[in-house]
Write a structure and sequence with these properties.
The structure holds three protein chains of three kinds. Chain A is mostly helical. Chain A is built from 14 helices and no strands. Chain B is mainly alpha-helical. Chain B contains ten helices and no strands. The N terminus of chain B is likely disordered. Classes of the chains: A mainly alpha, B mainly alpha, C alpha/beta.
């Protein structure tokens, strides 16, 4: 078991390191000249007017005047010490900018995840439990349909109906729980759609397994068969999916925060991409890999408790 | 997949032919989904057949009108016909989607085939790289690429294409593995068939439906991703319409002109739902 | 005395409206306390459907449309679903078909037994757990305490079936339904499990309804037999009477084709070696060894020796059978001989030419001489190809004949395996299991190979079809003087077809020799154990 945990933690670290490397390659090596991009990003016309000295100073700061491999280890070394460089846009430390943006995004992400899990599980269980053919068909058909909605459009529709027409929730802003509800729902809808699909199909499949006949032959009633046996078995593939979609929730935050004009990491990323602020973009993207690694580590560690076949393989 | 097999591997003496050809039935859902996609393609090819309005020049007097017979999608704040803008915006959206699919497909087919057929260390290495790519959501990979490459429709298309390579390599590899390990593929080798014969006669025909299903799925996904990037403002420059940009433009009039966001959004939804539905039906028909 | 179980005029339909077919069509019988009744018939005869109707667990799409079922005074068909659920487990117990898929994989054995107890007895949790331990002891599982906290995948098939018997009988049901409860198990395990079931039900005086396709099992265990065909009862009565003096042709067919009841005399006639033309063996296998490395999710790889120093010879035109229980390495040996897998050590030669280690063109050349027939004909036939294309594929691979000639030859091959030419344009999905296996055999003999490896080639088939395919194989052997490597877990079948037999256990050949010698005078204790466990000894 200890070996298993060690391997999973090691794997998570490798994922983060590899993601850092990939972002380094894409951002610093792909375009011919990151210095121009940074200067260009720093404000319209600056690039053309930038003096050779300015360029050289910036190049030196990021180590662009040295061989690629040296640059790589220079930046990696700084990153390991927690130094992620300065924002090109406003010269503030990247770590500080991200730190300010984090809480607001974490708030809607967690709330969204909770909504998604409740909604996804609820729809999946109801779809399979219902004996009404129409309701059943509806509950099976809605998740794939909502999965086809663009996130920004869902957000705008929610705004239009619940803020402007009904006035139940504020349309913009960061203050308090009420302002977080609509963004969280926007984030939850695509995630809930995929959880519901995987869970409904999982429950449906499990209910056709021969062991369900044995459970029923013991005298178990319908609710027990569905909840205690079918749902628990169907949870296993769904759990993997939760791990995979957490990154997606963060990506959704970019769009959602733009729609709701909320500050946060998504909004920061959107602004940074707009100004081609390379250091900030790199760290934000890297953070999504970190979140992914942590959540998947957690999922991997929970797995043995849910699926005994992982913890104790057959002899 | 397996539920298509008749349940009689332990078969009966009776001539078990209950599953003879079912009479051909029109699948209205497929017809509808196909029709939606056909109309969209026609919008892109010959937009002038569908609207007589000018998508770029507005009539000041007609500004801010709700949908009517003259303007089925209403007009925007400077009096441009929204329906015309949606129709004319189709070409740019579809072109970008085609570029994205082409990139995603060529790259992931190569990776998937190599990984699945060669196997061993190469498979191991490729799949670890894919795992890392999967750790970053495809939208963020696209944003990264847009930052590095710069803005514009083409760059957005390239970014979306590359962003979906990882996920599709995964799926293609598992399809390849499924086919490679099918008993009848081994049985064909057992008859002495050469490997290219096996590939052409047994593997490809089996793989063609899942590949089409995947293309349809990728089509829907790419439309969504491109619309999102356009919505965030990284796509076409202002006057030229594209779907994501149209919704974005309408944001500022949410309280007063619902049609500006709702209707272009609905067009995107209709296209994506159709593509996904076709993909699902193809996926199930195996 | 009134019967414990009464079934009258039972009709069960599959499908609805005009497409509905009667799976069970007017079945009726009675079963008294303490008795065992066997419901026998070929697959599709309606025996399982009848059993499921009694316990109220019909599959989706099946519906009782007529008749009456009464169990211990309860009119099953008029009860509401909730009330029926209450009878299940308390009055009626079910021992299911396949123990490997019949326990919830994510819950411990203990929990699953406790669930069965607590659903019907108002015991507190710890008392139920103590009772569960007693159940495991009663069904004769070793280390019962450990088993309580284990998961199904950690137990063997036989152990799982014992757990299921424990669950079925824990609340002292009046009726236990055993639905092909031991068909998937190896013979030795099968016998022990059936003994256990007998003992438990005898203790409580419960009645047993045994659903089986194996007349050997029925002969050994049942007081009375009901024979079903096409959803109708064609014959019923005391076991000795029905099996000893069958009246209906369907019963006679079942008895004749049950391998476990057939004696060696019934073996299809065969040539005695190939008139001394060439005495050298066709296939020589020496010191064969195969190791696998299993990689678990946790921990490092585990080394498994699947085949360990196996050696044998097959003379021309003869059949050599490899028998063994699951996991004994018989399939791996067959796949190595057919060139699908490489051994870790040792060799297999056909006519002196090395099979093991051949690659590319050499391996392809060997395909003309060695062919392979799979257990599951459906998976090994490309679903999109027509039958004649499948059969002609080997000819096409080796560029033999024109397209028209190959088609002609395909029709000849179909005739050789007794398939009507009308089937030539069908796809595999439109054939029955027996027909598909004939197609696979036709494909295997298309190149007139010297050796055909038959990997459990008749195991998935119904007894009647099995018998026909075995006859076909014997006939082809005589005509083409082909040799067979016949791989099977079923000793009764082996006795019918083999000239020589090798017994594999855990990768090693423990005994081999001429089939009559091995069967009549087994030298290794394991062979004896296998032979004794063949059901149907009582009727012979």
């Amino acid at each position: 078991m200890l070996w298993y945990i060690a391997r999973r933690v090691g794997y998570a670290l490798i994922v983060v390191w590899a993601a850092w490397t990939v972002t380094f390659i894409l951002l610093y090596r792909l375009p011919s000249d990151p210095v121009s991009i940074m200067l260009h990003g720093a404000g319209g016309e600056v690039a053309s007017r930038a003096s050779a000295t300015q360029r050289a100073a910036l190049a030196h700061q990021y180590g662009f005047d040295r061989p690629v491999i040296v640059q790589y280890f220079l930046l990696l070394g700084r990153a390991l010490r927690g130094d992620f460089g300065l924002s090109v846009q406003n010269h503030l430390p990247v770590a500080k900018l991200v730190g300010q943006a984090l809480p607001s995004t974490v708030q809607i992400a967690l709330l969204g995840l909770a909504f998604a899990l409740l909604l996804g599980a609820g729809v999946a269980i109801a779809a399979n439990y219902s004996r009404n053919r129409f309701l059943r068909g509806l509950l099976f058909a809605v998740p794939p349909l909502t999965a086809s909605f663009p996130t920004f459009w869902v957000g705008l529709m929610l705004l239009e109906v619940f803020s402007f027409r009904l006035g139940w929730f504020p349309a913009v802003g960061n203050d308090g729980f009420r302002a977080a509800v609509l963004p969280a729902i926007t984030l939850a809808i695509p995630a809930a759609a995929s959880y519901a699909q995987v869970l409904s199909r999982g429950i449906e499949k499990t209910l056709r397994e021969p062991f369900i006949d044995v459970v029923r032959a013991k005298g178990a009633q319908r609710a027990r068969v569905h909840l205690v046996h079918a749902f628990r078995n169907a949870m296993i593939p769904a759990l993997t999916l939760v791990g995979l979609t957490v990154g997606g929730i963060f990506a959704g935050a970019v769009v959602t925060e733009t729609v709701f004009s909320r500050s946060g990491m998504g909004n920061l990323l959107q602004a940074s991409v707009n100004s081609q602020d390379i250091p900030v973009v790199q760290i934000l993207v890297l953070l999504s890999a970190v979140a992914f690694a942590i959540v998947n580590l957690a999922v991997d560690l929970v797995y043995p408790f849910i699926d005994p076949r992982i913890a104790r393989p057959a002899r | 997949m397996t539920d298509v097999l008749p349940l009689e591997t332990a078969a009966s003496t009776a001539p078990a032919r209950r599953r003879t050809r079912t009479p051909f039935r029109v699948r209205y859902d497929l017809v509808l989904a196909g029709a939606v996609l056909l109309v969209i393609v026609l919008w892109a090819a010959v937009p002038q057949l569908f609207t007589s309005q000018n998508p770029l020049v507005g009539v000041g007097a007609a500004a801010h009108q709700a949908p009517s017979a003259a303007h089925p999608f209403g007009t925007d704040m400077i009096g441009r016909d929204l329906f015309a803008r949606v129709v004319y915006g189709t070409r740019s959206s579809l072109q970008a989607t085609a570029v994205a699919i082409a990139i995603a497909f060529v790259a992931s087919t190569v990776i998937g085939l190599v990984s699945g057929f060669v196997g061993g260390v190469l498979d191991e290495v490729l799949m670890r790289v894919v795992d890392v790519m999967l750790a970053v959501p495809s939208l963020l990979v696209s944003l990264l690429l847009v930052t590095a490459l710069g803005f514009g429709t083409t760059n957005v298309a390239i970014a979306v294409g590359i962003g979906s390579v990882a996920a599709f390599s995964r799926v293609l590899r598992s399809e390849v593995l499924k086919v490679r390990t099918a008993a009848y593929v081994e049985a064909a080798a057992g008859t002495g068939a050469r490997w290219w014969d096996i590939l052409l006669r047994h593997v490809l025909p089996l793989a063609i439906t899942p590949i089409l299903a995947l293309v349809a799925l990728e089509f829907g996904g790419a439309i969504l991703a491109i619309a999102s990037l356009n919505f965030l403002g990284y796509g076409a420059a202002p006057p030229a319409p594209d779907w994501g940009g149209l919704v974005s433009d309408g944001r500022n009039y949410l309280a007063t002109a619902w049609w500006l966001t709702t209707l272009p959004g609905l067009v995107i939804v209709a296209v994506v739902v159709s593509a996904n539905h076709i993909s699902r039906v193809l996926g199930e028909s195996r | 005395m009134s019967a414990l179980l009464t079934v009258e005029g039972l009709v069960v339909d599959y499908g609805r409206g005009p497409d509905a077919t009667h799976a069970v069509d007017g079945v009726g019988f009675e079963l008294h306390e303490g008795e065992t009744l066997a419901l026998v018939g070929a697959s599709g005869s309606g025996k399982s459907t009848t059993a499921h109707a009694i316990i109220g667990l019909l599959p989706e799409g099946a519906k009782v449309v007529g008749g009456r079922i009464s169990v211990a005074g309860n009119e099953i068909l008029t009860l509401r679903e909730r009330e029926r659920a209450r009878l299940r487990g308390s009055v009626i117990g079910l021992v299911p078909q396949d123990p490997t898929v019949s326990l919830d994989p994510v819950q411990t054995i203990g929990r699953q037994i406790v669930e069965a107890i607590r659903l019907h007895q108002g015991l507190p949790r710890h008392a139920a757990r103590a009772e569960a331990l007693a159940v495991l002891e009663r069904v004769g599982i070793d280390r019962p305490k450990l088993r309580l906290s284990q998961y199904p995948h950690e137990l063997s098939g036989g152990q799982r079936q014992r757990v299921l018997i424990g669950i079925a009988t824990v609340n002292g049901p009046r009726l236990v339904i055993a639905d092909e409860a031991t068909s998937g198990l190896d013979v030795t395990v099968q016998r022990r499990v059936l003994d256990q079931l007998d003992a438990l039900t005898a203790e409580d005086g419960a009645a047993v309804l045994l659903i089986t396709h194996d007349l050997g099992v029925a002969a050994d265990r049942a007081d009375a037999v009901v024979v079903l065909e096409n959803g109708r009862v064609v014959e019923s009565g005391p076991t000795a009477r029905v099996l000893g003096d069958p009246q209906h042709p369907a019963t006679r067919r079942l008895i004749e084709s049950a391998p476990s009841l057939a004696s060696a005399r019934d073996r299809p006639s065969r040539v005695i070696a190939a008139e001394g033309t060439d005495a050298s063996p066709l296939l020589t296998v020496e010191g064969l060894r195969k190791e696998f490395t299993l990689r678990g999710a946790i921990g490092r790889g585990e080394h498994i020796v699947a085949v360990d120093d196996v050696g044998f010879e097959i003379p021309r035109g003869q059949t050599y059978a490899l028998v063994g229980e699951s996991g004994s390495g018989k399939t791996t040996t067959g796949r190595i001989v057919a060139g699908f897998e490489r051994p870790s050590g040792g060799s297999a030669r056909i006519d002196g030419e090395l099979i093991t280690g051949a690659r590319g063109a050499a391996l392809r050349g060997l395909r003309r001489r060695v062919q392979y027939v799979y257990q599951n004909p459906f998976a090994s036939l490309d679903p999109r190809f027509a039958v004649h294309e499948i059969v002609a594929e080997p000819l096409r691979s080796f560029g033999i004949g024109t397209r028209a000639e190959r088609r002609e030859r395909a029709l000849e091959l179909l005739e050789a395996v007794h398939l009507p030419p009308a089937l030539a344009t069908r796809r595999p999905a439109q054939l029955s299991g027996g027909q598909r296996q004939r197609v696979a055999i036709a494909r295997a003999i298309a190149l007139e190979p010297q050796l055909v490896v038959l990997d459990e080639a008749v195991s998935a088939l119904d007894v009647l079809v099995q018998r026909q395919v075995l006859e076909l194989l014997a006939e082809l052997q005589e005509r083409l003087s082909v040799s067979y490597l016949f791989i099977s877990h079923d000793l009764a079948v082996v006795r019918l077809v083999a000239d020589e037999v090798g017994v594999l256990r855990a990768g090693r050949l423990v005994e081999h020799g001429p089939v009559d010698r091995v069967f009549d005078d087994p030298r290794h204790p394991y062979t004896r154990e296998l032979l004794e466990a063949i059901p149907g000894t009582a009727a012979r």
